[in-house]
Design goal:
Radius of gyration: 16 Å
Distance between the termini: 18 Å
Keywords: Membrane, Transmembrane, Transmembrane helix
Number of domains: 1
Order of helices and strands: HHHHHH
Protein name: Integral membrane protein
Shape: elongated
Number of helices: 6
Number of strands: 0
Helix content: over 70%
Strand content: under 5%
Structural class: mainly alpha
Amino acid sequence: MSATQLAAIARTTDPRTMLRRFLAADAVVTGANGLAYLAAAGPLGRFLGVDPGLLRALGAFLVVYAAAVGLLASRERPPMLPVRAVIDANLFWAVLSLVALAVWLTPSTAGAVWTVLQALAVAGFAAAQYLAVRATGH
């Protein structure tokens, strides 16, 4: 992805604003996902073929994680160490999701598709955040 493409997605050419927007988008999507898991663990569990208890635990984690990422996004100059931790956590989540799907989860077809799609989305956030960090010169 070129700097021009990244700027177009972020709707800014300022690298710090770009980074903050990608962090904010991550926080919103992650928070919404976590809240859905918490609020509808039973129906989602049946649809995805995943234990509702697992969805509740993941939902609670995701809500807390989203709040932390949102706090980071709200900073005028997000500190690089926590930003890099978010990037690493996103990459870890994406890989772990695919490993879980291959090794121990037995979801429905919808659940398998959802797992792959969310892993790709999270990896996309990591890539956009990484490229934005690079654009800031760090």
